[in-house]
Every structure is written in structure tokens, then in C-alpha cells.
Amino acid sequence: MGYDIERFVGYVNEGLLCSICRDVLEDPLQAPCEHAFCTACIHGWLVHHSNCPEDRQMIDVSLLRPLYRYMKNDLNRLQLHCKNRENGCEMVCSLESIDRHERECEYSQIPCSNAGCTAQVERRNLDGHLAVCEFRSRECPNGCGYTILSAEDTQHNCVAELRTELELLRSEMICRVEEAKHEMESRLDSQRRHMVQKESILQNEIEELKSQMSRLMSDVRSLMAAERQHRQELEQAELEKREL
Length: 244
Hints:
The protein is mainly alpha-helical. Among the domains are: 5-104, Herpes Virus-1 (2-Layer Sandwich), CATH 3.30.40.10; 109-149, no CATH class. It has 5 helices and 9 strands. The longest helix is centred in the last third of the chain and has 86 residues, at 158-243. 11% of the residues are buried.
């Protein structure tokens, strides 16, 4: 739906009106036949029809295009009243900036920010409403630190609330201790497995070193035996030489 034409100040060109709702174009689209529509209006129309509502020419969603720039500029320059005019807002601004103004307008109806409160109040009156809202919260005046609603003042029991808070803290602490315990056990198991694995690797390396040492000693003994044999052969050769 478009903007209510009654909100606008001065003359509005016929070409800036939606061909379906006959209000001033909102988020406009243009058909190949140059008729313009509000996006919501033409999309709703094409659900049940396949032609232009003005001249009955065949159109499709894929053929719709943004409004010509000069028409868009003319549209944005139109002056209109704020939608909160009946509530007291006297602002008149361009269509291009109306959304920004209305988002911040002091006369706009906004919901109360207190949980549980369904009241809608003007933005300018929100602080006053929050001060008396039955759903407003505040800290217990007796010093227990509990946040209470005004409607619960007569039912609030500091001792009961503190006991409940203590139980919650105790339960949370127990959970955290259990989590820390499980985490430590998991780490210890992981380290134990790692140590066992390292021990196995070291044991294999020791066995390999023993095997190498054994082979080395065998080689040394073989070399010593060969040396003794060689020495004996030299002595025998020396004796034979002397006899000759």
C-alpha cells in the first residue's frame, strides 16, 4: 500500500500515484508500459493476474523495473505530514526523509521495555511510564542484592531468595568441580598413555642398542682372534727364517 495522499502538502502529480491503490507510490516499480505501482500492490496483483491493471498489457514480475530517476526525484521531494500528526506532531518533511523522522518521532507509539509489560506509550512519555510501570525492576532495598519487580515487593523474602541463590551457587560449584575432575582425569589418562608409548619406544631402542653392542663385541673378538693368529704366523715365519 502507498502513502495516504491526504498526508501530503500541495499538489501531487497523477504520475506519482499507484495505479492500484491510488495512493502516493511507496517503494515503486514500473512496468514496460510505464505505469507505476507500489511494490506490494503489484506483487499482490500479479498473484491472480498476468496483465497491467491500467491498460491490460501482459506483464511479468521479471519485467518490472525501478522508477525513472526523474520521477523518483520528484517523488522524494514531495512534502508530507508525519503519521503521528493526530497525536500532536507538527513535522512536515520530504518523503525521502519521512521514514527517518518517524523512527525517531517523539509522538510515535513504542512498547514498554520492561519484560512482561504490554503497554504502548509515546516515546516522549516513556521515561514517565517506566518510573511507575508495575513491571519495573529494582534491587531489594534490604541489601540482599536480588532484583525484584514492584508487583512482587510484598512477596519478596530475602532469606528465601538468598537460600535459593546459595543452592544454585552450590549446584554450579559442584558441576564445575566435577567438570574439572573429569578434565584432569582425561589429561592424566592421556599423559599415562603417552608415557607408556614413550616407554615402549625407549625399550625397543635399548634392545636395539644391546643387539648392536653384542654384534660389536663379536666383531672385536673375531678381530682379536685374527690378530693372535697373525702374530703366531709371524713368529713361526721368524723361527723358520732363523733356522734357514
